[in-house]
Amino acid sequence: xxxxxxxxxxxxxxxxxxxxxxxxxxxxxxxxxxxxxxxxxxxxxxxxxxxxxxxxxxxxxxxxxxxxxxxxxxxxxxxxxxxxxxxxxxxxxxxxxxxxxxxxxxxxxxxxxxxxxxxxxxxxxxxxxxxxxxxxxxxxxxxxxxxxxxxxxxxxxxxxxxxxxxxxxxxxxxxxxxxxxxxxxxxxxxxxxxxxxxxxxxxxxxxxxxxxxxxxxxxxxxxxxxxxxxxxxxxxxxxxxxxxxxxxxxxxxxxxxxxxxxxxxxxxxxxxxxxxxxxxxxxxxxxxx
Length: 289
Hints:
Shape: globular
Strand order of the largest sheet: 1-2
Mean pLDDT: 94
Oligomer: single chain
Radius of gyration: 18 Å
Structural class: mainly alpha
């Protein structure tokens, strides 16, 4: 049966409670930290060795779609009524949004060390000990809006600019691609300061704290963010039905890093599923408007 992913602002109190309880149970069982490690292991930048499968490449979207499905499957083993809600950051775009209430994601980090002190994922509550991370901290951190280098969440216009592009991706298939929906949504851009971060990347930057870098899964808001990124991709697919994943195959001549991206029918580590196998989710889940 096809299940539904809802906008987080439309969840009932009971639905919010069930989602949080399922996430905490995965953490208690040690399963949650396995997802953190998977993301860290596959966070490969342009200049690094290895296949750029999760970020800075065409498979950014299908890789995270599969990643979300694995996480959602684990949640539904705990509670079959749970799915991953999405956070529309063009709409709920302030620290006062219900997303950050104490019964859901919890609030901002305190000034002195950015430690989140409220909500179910506060270290002080005893249920959220960060054990897999690129840093040494044991607690969840946030710095909403980055006051020291202020940044706003993406606007509807900025997102519409990305979704208007009818081509999925383009050479050189990395963070330098200035054409194609994938990188416009992922959000690598030229410029200085905050101008370098668009859409998806800008959200990670706005939340800050542990949402920066490969260990960003340590903040449960990661899943709501990527659920919306996936929803945007889904809507883009509906708006551009003739679009296909690009590149069709590995093209080592396209750039210095071209041989390190995943082609349409090539396997995505760590699963072996191809981007083409992740193109259609309609028989698994749908998004509520």
